[in-house]
Design a protein that fits this description.
The protein is of the alpha+beta class. The chain has helices at 42-45, 84-100, 110-123, 127-144, 176-179, 191-195, 201-220, 226-241, and strands at residues 2-15, 19-26, 30-36, 53-59, 67-75, 163-166, 173-175, 187-188. The protein folds into 2 domains: 2-75, OB fold (Dihydrolipoamide Acetyltransferase, E2P) (Beta Barrel); 81-149 and 189-241, no CATH class. It has 8 helices and 8 strands; from the N terminus they run E-E-E-H-E-E-H-H-H-E-E-H-E-H-H-H.
Length: 242
């Protein structure tokens, strides 16, 4: 038996009359799937809500068979107290993790970003701050798959000054001077990604457009959950930007 603590509930599917197959995200084990006996019963229904933190005792079975998990509550995600945007953030981030992360691979870099967004939703954090964190998470997810953006210098001139665009083909930054004649073909690089700080509504819209372009092209184009992910993301973006 292995103990995993903490783990975040990111998906739950009915299995049998009262059981459920849960998917959980942890730093050391990454994505973990396991059968939870009584997972849809009264005692565990609230414990296994998306975004909650739990401890797991995992009992392995024969190779190729789903493990069993005993689940113990650690903390409840209170997104339901903070309105539609917070709930939509939990739904999308959970679906993104469950759909794109490989099972059983440690996620020491991505786990804190996912955990921070669940925590932000549960605390009713500012929509612009949550949206900026989401953009950074999506770009980090792409980088972890070898599809990251190069925002260090201009693709055309090598300059590191006044980077204002990103090439949709090369994924590299482009300076304002070099990119302005081709601005209609380039993606805006929002200031909060280049220099840090708080995003404005316009910058957040540009950031979501930027990460969404590469996410759709590189990761979701042929993904089985593409329609669900795109719909959840579009709804969330509308709520964050207003």
């Amino acid at each position: 038996m292995d103990r995993i603590e903490p783990a975040i509930v990111i998906a739950l599917a009915a299995h049998g009359e009262h059981g459920a197959v849960g998917r959980f995200l942890s730093a050391d084990q990454g994505l973990v799937a396991a059968y939870v006996r009584g997972g849809r019963g009264r005692r565990l229904r609230g414990v296994l809500a998306l975004g909650n933190q739990v401890a797991l005792d995992i009992t392995a079975r024969a190779p190729g068979q789903l493990a069993f998990a005993s689940v113990y509550p650690l903390s409840t995600n209170m997104a339901m107290m903070h309105g539609a945007a917070a709930l939509a953030l939990v739904d999308y981030v959970a679906l993104l993790a469950a759909s794109t992360l490989p099972e059983g691979e440690a996620q020491p870099g991505l786990y804190p970003l996912f955990a921070a967004l669940f925590a932000a939703a549960g605390a009713g954090a500012d929509a612009l701050a949550s949206g900026a964190a989401l953009v950074r998470l999506e770009l980090a997810l792409l980088a972890g798959l070898g599809l990251g953006l190069d925002l260090s210098s201009c693709a055309a001139t090598g300059s590191t000054e006044d980077l204002a665009f990103v090439s949709p083909k090369s994924r590299q930054a482009v300076s304002r001077a070099a990119g302005e004649p081709w601005a209609a073909r380039l993606l805006p690089l929002p200031l909060f990604l280049r220099d840090g700080g708080v995003a404005t509504p316009d910058q957040l819209a540009d950031g979501l457009k930027l990460s969404g372009h590469f996410l759709s092209r590189e990761l979701l184009a042929s993904h089985p959950a593409q329609v669900r992910l795109q719909a959840a993301r579009q709804r969330l973006a509308g709520l964050l930007i207003g």
